[in-house]
Automatic annotation (TrEMBL):
This is Uncharacterized 19.0 kDa protein in cobS 5'region. CDD domains: DnaJ. InterPro entries: DjlA_DnaK_co-chaperone (IPR050817), DnaJ_domain (IPR001623), J_dom_sf (IPR036869). Residues 145-202 form the J domain. Transmembrane segments: none annotated.
């Protein structure tokens, strides 16, 4: 490459930058102040990103009396603060699905105290009219004792339990026995057994 080539000059030399004129900082925007306004102060609500420029003394004075919520009622302030938690974005409650909201807790399902409604017979192997196989209940020891006390087997229906309870209460109530203390213990045992079965969803 020759030294007097036009390309050589473009590679080796740079354009001289124009001398940037340094701008003097703006003056304070406080009325009657001639000092330099180097401190920013927010303009206010609905003017985000806009600032006043004040000197140090006047920015302190402005900040003392600044209130972002001036002109708003207490309810509007509370709503703004609540929306600020989520960054003013719309939110929805957890579990919008109504079926999930009304469904039993996992602990209830495991304890067996909740019975699943199954109109199509998917869970119990039934189809509309009746059970395909007789449903066998798995009883806990207290539940089995309650059925024994009532004189019923584990396959008793809700109406059978209720009718048996009424029958036993009439039979062992102290008023029916003329105040005989012998059947009082049996009366208490029947009531406790019925309450246990009722709490566990058998009747």
């Amino acid at each position: 490459m020759r030294l007097d080539s036009k390309y050589f000059d473009r590679i080796r030399t740079r354009r001289k930058r124009e001398q940037e004129t340094e701008q003097a900082p703006p003056s304070c925007q406080w009325d009657g102040c001639d000092k330099k306004g180097v401190h920013r102060a927010p303009v206010g609500r609905n003017a985000e990103g806009q600032f006043f420029l004040f000197c140090f003394e006047h920015v302190k004075e402005y900040n003392k009396g600044y209130n972002y919520f001036s002109g708003l009622s207490d309810g509007e302030i509370a709503r703004y603060q609540k929306e600020a938690i989520t960054g003013h974005r719309p939110t929805w409650t957890v579990g919008v699905n109504k079926a999930a909201k009304n469904s039993p807790l996992h602990s209830d399902l495991r304890s067996g105290s909740y019975r699943v409604r199954d109109p199509f017979g998917f869970v119990n192997g039934t189809k509309g009219s009746g059970p395909r196989f007789p449903e066998q209940r798995k009883l806990k020891s207290l539940e089995a004792k309650a059925f024994d006390t009532m004189g019923l087997d584990a396959s008793a229906t809700s109406s059978e339990i209720k009718s048996r309870y009424k029958e036993l209460v009439k039979k062992h109530h102290p008023d029916a026995n003329g105040g005989d203390r012998g059947s009082e213990e049996r009366f208490r045992a029947v009531i406790q057994a019925y309450q246990l079965l009722k709490q566990n969803g058998f009747c």
